[in-house]
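SEVERITY: medium
COMPONENT: batch folding queue
REPORTER: lab tech (J.R.)

DESCRIPTION
The queue accepted two submissions in a row. Attaching both inputs and their returned structure tokens so the on-call engineer can compare them side by side.

ATTACHMENT 1
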Amino acid sequence: MKRTRTRRRGFTLIEVLVVVAIVALLAGILLPVLAKAKGRAQGITCANNIRQLHIAWIGFADEHGGKLVNNHGIQETLRTRDNWVNNVLDWGFSPGNTNLETLRSGHLTPYLGESTGVFHCPSDKSVADNGSRIRSYSMNSMVGDPGELTNRFNPQMLQFFKNTDFPKPSEIYVFLDEHPDTLNDGFFMNRWAEPKWGNLPANYHDSGANLSFADGHVERHRWVEETTLKPNIKGGSGGVFATDSSRDYDWLREHTSVRK
């Protein structure tokens, strides 16, 4: 009996091209979805980090008769190391960029179980000359004792020294994501008389930043101005950025303090 040999038929060029086109189409559909999901997850982690910092902030005040933790500027932070966080960042070789001890020595770390990861937003990819930077967050300059900077920049506004000083705690922010180009000390400050950013909020999370408020809630606020949405690229540390209009600036000013 004669066996009939069956010829195996390979793929034609057209069939291969069709498969490649389908794979490319699916990748084009799925990759943005996956990227968005990853960004959303990072935003949730960031919000949880800020929530943990805020709980530590509350814990410090509870153990110190309502006194809020110190919130110093660059010079006093470097001189006294008596701050909520003791590192100062730049784009060069500052020890504060990478030295975790500058976080551990801050007054909030004992209330964080010695954890240092909560100081960094997973969406913050900023890298200085000596390595990846370890902090992404700053504190409202009108919250806590600013030491030598008391009444220096916005004397017409109320400085909150105790946890009972807030007239409307749900409207005053405490912690926020800061843009890497202005992030240095942990003291987020702007001169509120005119709309020019000295410190700029970050825009990591769907064009917005996470903030905690004195009543304990955390929210993401989305920015609307092009000048607030500066790209997160390695640039100068500090500086002044003009605004297109004052919508974002006014919103943050209104949630920073109240007039005396």
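ATTACHMENT 2
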Amino acid sequence: MILYNVTWNSSETKKIYRATKDSEILMEYLEQSLEKANLIKLIGEHPVPDKGREYGVMIYYFNSSPKRKLLTAAPRRNNNYIHIELFSRILTREVLESFNLGNARDPIIDLKVHSVDEIDRLIELLKANFYKV
């Protein structure tokens, strides 16, 4: 079940996840940066409170198309990074080569973000390429 009109701080995902403090700080900073850059209009979440596998993901939707995903983000329990999946082909693997990329198949690109500086770089890339949407 997807819940809408939430924020990271008010989310069920934050309550059930037990993420590392650094990972939580990155989640909050990512959300604030997306809002400040006016890249998102709607925030949703998909919490999974099942005992033994508690997790969740935050879903950020385009400013221009609230029902189309810009990206999803999830904290980590045992690591100090957040996992982000980018949608809608705004950025390419070549543009993101300086990031720690995952193995997701196109058109989805996934990456691990370890710092506020990486979030700032990602936001700048998203803003610069937003016209492609």
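NOTES FROM REPORTER
The helical segments are 12-17, 21-36, 116-129.
No errors were logged for either attachment.
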